[in-house]
Amino acid sequence: MKGEYHNEKMETATREEIEELQTQRLKAVVRHVYQSNQIYRKLFDSHGVRPEDIRTLKDVAKLPMTNKEILRESYPLGLSCVPRESIIEMHMSSGSTGTPVIMPYTSSDLNQWAECMARCYRMAGGRPGDAVQITPLFGLFNGGFGMYHGARAAGLFVIPAGPGNTQRQVRLARDLKTRILTGVVSYGVRIIEVMEEMNEKLPDLEIGIFGAEAFSEPMKKRISDGLGIEVFDIYGMTETGGVGTLGQDCTAHDGIHVWEDHYIVEIIDPRTGEAVEDGETGELVVTALTREALPVIRFRTADLTRVLSRDACDCGRSHVRIAPITGRIDDMIIVKGVNFFPKQVEQTLMQIPGVGSNYQIIVEEADGVNDIRVNVEAEAGVTGFMVEKALKEALGFSPKGDVYPMGKLPRTEGKAQRVFHKKMS
Ligand SMILES: [Zn+2]
Fold it and tell me: Residue 155 is part of which domain span?
């Protein structure tokens, strides 16, 4: 199981070595943000914390937490910790609530991103010279460029396809012998459909790296079976510096290795802000240790996960493993007193034989009360009753919904929209 590494020394460092490095880097990054940014300095001052108070790794808990709001309020570059002339690239998350978040990068930040992302490619089994087809957008969204910077660092042959024109994607993959496909999960599903329409096979394709949407185990299996590949779940977000910065699962598929020499992760109870025990689910909080332009400090990601293991893994890597993201705190749907995440609906649907990979969850709100409708695509023979029964068993209540013939629900070529909110009155 022990594989090849992009940076063997760091990826297999002992826990003591990792913690020693984290301690040094934490002190340095706290000094950096305090000395170079007014907003950070005021935030620290208002919590009565000074850089010299941070002496050990545990002292991270003394630092104030930050969130998306602070980043939005400081739009465009208010939270930047470097002179403007040091910034050489930027990416942006649009967000559903209006003001976007901008992440600036220095040259060193781009190298840091490339290093993290290159480790992910190698961890998935990528080798120098492999053709990698990058299907996320090359633009403000960080996906395309992050996968590009990492592929360059890992010595891969980059096919910068971007999204869309799926028939051309399939032909490119066939003609250039693409071994690694990267993208958002819903695009993986789209490629399978188009391959079937074209009656095309891609025998050279072996590795799929998917991210940006929480996806369930059964969905992973569908993509893996449909494309005949091993599927990896990559993690990272605009605020931490983009795709791959936080890590990915390895060939043991036993959790996501977080690059701890670059990030400190904490799991907290979202209501109290206190740390939870390893194994307990909570909100992931991230401190970026090695970024220059905008290192986040104790950033509340709103992503829910848990620590699976801090022991060395079968793959030889020592970095902490966390569970794939269950959902985001703000994605939680409450219907008739029952809380659940869209991913749980997906997990249930994908286990019903004949149900397709496209579905919609429509939350209908009338007088402050939610009702839910789940629309699916399925082969002939699958009835609404079967879907309702499966969801009732899994979630504890019966959503309404319709069963459509395969291919009849709308398709997206970027990040899929699965959940729709409707005001009914
Ligand atoms: Zn591993």
Answer: 1-329
| Distance from Cα 244 to the centre of ligand 1, integer Å | 15
* Maximum alpha-carbon separation in the chain: 67
Ligand 1 centroid from CA 324, angstroms: 14
Total Cβ atoms within 10 A of residue 384: 15
In this prediction, residue 363 carries a pLDDT of 87
Same domain flag for 341 and 248: no
Distance 54 CA to ligand 1 centre (A): 31
CA atoms within 13 A on the CB side of 210: 29
The CATH number assigned to the domain holding 264 equals: 3.40.50.12780
Last residue of a domain, one of 305, 329, 353: 329
Q: What is the DSSP annotation of 170-210?
A: HHHHHHTT--EEEEEHHHHHHHHHHHHHHT---TT--EEEE
Report the percent of the chain where pLDDT is more than 90.
Answer: 75
Q: What is the mean pLDDT of residues 30-54?
A: 97
User: Whole-prediction pTM value?
Assistant: 0.89
User: Does 148 lie in the same domain as 31?
Assistant: yes
**316: amino acid identity, one letter:** G
**Greater confidence, 419 or 59?**
59
Determine what percent of the chain falls in helix, strand and coil, rounding each to the nearest 5: 35, 25, 40
Q: Which helix (H) or strand (E) holds 285?
A: strand 282-288
pLDDT tier for residue 411 given thresholds of 50, 70 and 90: confident
The CA 249 to ligand 1 mean position distance, Å, reads 7
